[in-house]
Amino acid sequence: MAVLVLTLAACGGQSASDGETGPAGTESADGEGGATGDPIRIGVLLQLSGAAGVFGPPSQQAAELAEREINDAGGLLGRPVEVVIGDDATDASTAQEQAERLLNQEDVDVLISTESSAAREAVLPIVERADEPMIYTPLYEGGACNENLYNLGEVPKQQIEPVIPYIQDEYGVDSWYIVGDDYNWPRALGEVAQDAVADAGGSIVGEEYVPLGTNDFGTIIDNIESSDADVVMATLVGADAIAFVQQLNDFGLGEDVRVFGVAMLENVLPGLGEVEPVIAAFGYFEELENPENETFLTALDEMFGQDREQQTTLSEGTYEGIHLYAQAVTQAESTETEAVLQALNGQQFDAPRGSLTVGDSRHVTQNMYVAESRGESYEVMHDLGEIDPGDQC
Amino acid sequence: MAELLNAVYATGLLLLVAVGLAVVFGLMGIINLAHGEFLMLGAYVALAVTSLTGSFWLAIAAAPILVAILSLPIERFVMRRFYARPLETIVVTFGLAIVLQQLVEGLFGRGFQRVESPLPGSISFFGTTFPRYRLFLVMAAVLIVALLWVIQRHTLLGLRARAVMQNPELASSLGIDISRAYLLTFGVGSALAGLAGAIIAPTASVFPAMGTPFVVSAFLVVLVGGLGSLGGMAAAAAILGVTQTVLAGRVTPVFGVIGVVVVAVVFMRFMPDGVGRLWGQFRPRTGRAA
């Protein structure tokens, strides 16, 4: 029934285009950079509505900022760029419709996707048929190796492997319990954790997966208590993660059992009450202190004022995706698919998250940071340095 | 012991989410797919009242009243037109659910929000710990069902409601204002959903789609229990709550959810009139009951 609700709700969410789909070139007339001619069109697929609808709006703002920055610097190859947004309503088949629209009607030159893995897989055949490059930006389970595809997000090799030994050392824990939602990403991370925990000299004393939408974790918390675990790797998303952490604390285990919230992005923090700090590890936090991040956040503040959305690793990824594409086009001196895909390999970009390098396996070497929750935001505790994504393909 | 407490809590939670539906679906025969959204509205009332006044107990009092008031125009202008057409109510309430979610999203934003628990901490209970608020939730669920039973069986209001639901024409000829009876019954059902939503709010988080996962289990409880039977509903909640807890704990949580559906289907196959049939009670609108 829940699935049905989401599907029908999706029908209303055709497109939240940013109002810049007017006649070609109108935008460029106002552009300060003075680029003229037909715009280079950048398709951006986001989750602006539906179950994961909270993640879209910050990405949309980041995309609009990237568009403005590129145009202010004179556009690309002397042409202005134009971002065209599509809303997949957190639904793979809507993602396909939107990808068709962007690629075949709006004639975009690239597809930047900040969506679920399910949407990525659904959209890839359409991207192949249109033969355009695609950049998939969010953290994911790894191993997506389509010829037209580059991936920017944190893979388990980055988000799990170096983090587990760090948590064991820093918090003096070694007895892990894995609790996740029951779909492919948590299961894939669970497998990576098996090896990572063993390598770090710890042990996994329990592993459980619950259906999405679970709101009572009493039984699992009892199992955790009797297993004597001292740390939980929670690959739960959204409301499930909140309910779990909340109830773990309600049951009085908050102090004895640390929680590594692998998918606990900033948006879940306001849902948590007074709980023991949660540990998170991502490639980007708004709290990072570096010049690129300061510029990024200041520019967003100026552009959106009061309405500026909190940036997360997901939305910052959308911003990087657009800039990396722009760099590749500049280097290739063309928007031709083959040339752009070749130029993307080896691109380096000083992003708000730190320096990124695109590697041979079409994934990205990036910094990883460990943070602890402090009320409704994270405090960055440690920089794990640049982490290689390994051989993903 | 921990398993028993968890089963009791699962039962209480099921009772709480099903009790409003037992009135709207069980008595009126409306397949209300927006039931979860009435729960959600109650949770948002709790959120608003708690942050305005600082008192969760006031919020619990306000939630059923405000949700009931909100439900009255919905009954008058929408539901009323579909009483004779149960299949159409599915589509109508489905649309209503989307509208209510979008309205709340517009008013409160789509992010997760928190209602602080008025009873933090846990108590020790025969060697296991159990959160105090969970204990409160179970007691509240039992109290609500008991109160509803008293109203239904022992007050004039309950008598009239039952009369109208069982045979509207006859009730009308006896001078009962059936239009008002429908309005009141829908209001009571919505109030109960709103109350449940407010009570559930501190156990997890408040967000526009929070009601959706509760709808299926609420329907299963009412169907297994039997339409119009509060005792049956309580028994059904216990059967399904124990099934879920035992399977989730001893096999996997996924099996817990599957098990609930399987057990519900088996009961509906062999007791199509519900568990409540076993001790024979009033049943409206079921041809078989006669």
Blueprint of the fold:
The complex is a heterodimer of chains A (393) and B (290).
Chain A: H1 2-11, H2 26-30, E1 40-46, H3 56-72, E2 81-87, H4 92-105, E3 110-114, H5 117-130, E4 134-136, E5 149-151, H6 156-159, H7 163-171, E6 175-181, H8 184-199, E7 203-210, H9 218-227, E8 231-235, H10 238-250, E9 258-261, E10 279-282, H11 291-304, H12 313-332, H13 337-344, E11 348-351, E12 354-358, E13 364-374, E14 377-387
Parallel strand pairs in A: 1-2, 1-3, 3-4, 4-5, 6-7, 6-8, 8-9
Antiparallel strand pairs in A: 10-13, 11-12, 12-13, 13-14
Helix pairs in contact in A: 3-12, 4-5, 12-13
Chain B: H1 2-27, H2 35-53, H3 56-77, H4 86-108, E1 122-125, E2 128-131, H5 132-154, H6 156-166, H7 168-173, H8 178-200, H9 212-225, H10 230-250, H11 253-270
Antiparallel strand pairs in B: 1-2
Number of strands of chain A: 14
Helix share, percent of chain B: over 70%
If helices are DSSP runs of H or I spanning 4 or more residues, what is the number of helices of chain B? 11
Beta-strand fraction estimate of chain B:
under 5%
N-to-C SSE string of chain A, H for helix and E for strand = HHEHEHEHEEHHEHEHEHEEHHHEEEE
Oligomer: heterodimer
Give helix % range of chain A: 25-40%
Gyration radius of chain A, to the nearest Å?
A: 21 Å
**Could you say which structural class the secondary elements and strand pairing of chain A correspond to?**
alpha/beta
- The ordered string of helix (H) and strand (E) elements of chain B is HHHHEEHHHHHHH
The averaged pLDDT of chain B comes out at 90
| Largest β-sheet summary of chain A | 5 strands, parallel
Low-confidence stretches of chain B: 282-290
Structural class by SSE content of chain B: mainly alpha
Account of the 3D structure:
Chain A has 393 residues and is of the alpha/beta class. Chain A is built from 13 helices and 14 strands. In chain A, strands 2-1-3-4-5 form a five-stranded parallel sheet, with helices on both faces. In chain A, strands 10, 11, 12, 13 and 14 form a five-stranded antiparallel sheet that branches. The longest helix of chain A has 20 residues, at 313-332. Residues 1-32 of chain A have low confidence and may be disordered. Chain B is built from eleven helices and two strands. Chain B has helices spanning 2-27, 35-53, 56-77, 86-108, 132-154, 156-166, 168-173, 178-200, 212-225, 230-250, 253-270, and strands at 122-125, 128-131. In chain B, a hairpin with a 2-residue loop joins strand 1 and strand 2 (128-131). Residues 282-290 of chain B have low confidence and may be disordered. The chains are: A alpha/beta (393), B mainly alpha (290).
